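A student in our group prepared the protein record below, which I am reviewing. Here is the record exactly as it was handed to me.
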Amino acid sequence: MFALARFRIDDRSMEPALHAGDYVFVNRWAYRRKAPVAGDLVVLRNPEAAGQFLVKRIMSGDTATGFFVLGDNAFHSRDSRHFGMVPVQLIVGKVRVHAKA
């Protein structure tokens, strides 16, 4: 498995930081030795829909209880306010590079 993976932004949940059609490159190995921290931008497996991915910002949490994640655009985001805390196992990796569409 390669350390970097590319994901396409499909919605408006992270505006103004990321826009639909943008790409992000994710370091899938970023959390092998340390846990995510508040402020990290991450890609995670959608807890509500198998096979889908979300880009969200870590707000709080830890590896024992899970992480509270939010989209930057609250009006267009399904996030921890809807599906609760996210277990660390659902986090794919940390966003490292953002490429505009």
Remarks:
- The beta strands are 4-8, 23-27, 41-45, 53-62, 66-70, 91-99.
